[in-house]
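README, section 4: Worked example with a bound small molecule

Sections 1 through 3 covered apo chains. Here we extend the same pipeline to holo records, where the ligand is supplied as SMILES alongside the sequence. The molecule in this example is pyridoxal-5'-phosphate. Nothing else about the input changes; the structure line simply encodes the ligand pose together with the chain.
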Amino acid sequence: MKVPFVDLKAQYLSIKSEIDEAISDVINNTSFIGGEHVSLFKDKFENVYNVKNCVPVANGTDAIFIALKMLGIGPGDEVITTAHSWISTSETISLTGAKPVFVDTDDYFTIDVNLIEKNISSRTKAIIPVHLYGQMADMPFINTIAKKYNLFVIEDCAQGHLSSINGELSGTFGDASTYSFYPGKNLGAYGDAGAIITKSTDLAMRCKMFANHGGLKKHDHRIEGINSRMDGLQAAILNVKLNYIKQWTQKRIKVANWYNGLLLDVSEVQIPEVRPNAIHSYHLYVLKVKNRDDLKDYLDSNNIDTAIHYPVALPFLPAYSHLKNLSEQFPNVVEYSSEILSLPIYPELDYEQVKFIVQTIKKFYSAKR
Ligand SMILES: *Cc1c(COP(=O)(O)O)cnc(C)c1O
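The generated complex, written as structure tokens:
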């Protein structure tokens, strides 16, 4: 048996005729940029994700940058974010001219809300929590702090599609929320795509302008902007997939529960912890394990692909050496960086594959005992 880390081909084959039809429709109508598929995507996404004012953009990184920029974040400002994420979260802060201030994480791999206040300075303008691996940060707490200090909140929902806390969906807490539709994300395009969500129709309008050279109409450039538009092909593909995202999310949860059950008696691995009253949408299924690198090699030699998200935490990347971050400031991230291992998880994964993966993990550890 061979288990790839993600299997985008399997998903395509399950909806092939609809996708093929959507793609040829875009080509026949030459609606390559803007057009009906992008407008339909906006409405459909708002509906399915139960959010307001969706602004489709070119990718999830631009979505964060545009939101920050249109909230007025710039040189001299500080933005607080988690020490454990993909670099998009922090590089976009720097790109506005502001400084990223990293905070260690809690038991759920998300920003430790108890450490936020002591990192707030007179320059702090915003907080970017990340719903890492599919689990939401403690948004009710974060919003309380943000209100107290008058800070903007931008939810990085790139990995948090349709997760929730106390029954409230990701993307509904922040002043702005950003999504990525990178192919491997829970809702994935066939190229790059992203979106910004906001309760403010005014902010949505400014983001839409900025993403399209500063204008809402051609040749009416109100401000300088950038080119960050979602293209028609990606919108058409996403519109098909939006019909399935809820059932795919349920399937991801089912796969995670299979893993959780089968791994229960393996003392060398710690299964992902889920926040009380939260729904984890399992973009990634991440264990903390003993002998991580050897286990990873062993799984690899048994044709099981795994990954590490992420091998080096943000504060310690060469890109941030100028910030002189110390490992003592981030004890949690430092501790688990050598323990985390992401197992394959996607809606098309079947029980036999999950069983095979767990049996292989058990074989590895029983040979060690
Ligand atoms: C994927 C990702 C992004 C960026 O999305 P792109 O569409 O690849 O630009 C941002 N933040 C996090 C946490 C991500 O995982």
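What to look for in the output: The longest strand covers residues 78-82. DSSP finds twelve helices and 13 strands in the chain.

Section 5 describes how to batch many such records.
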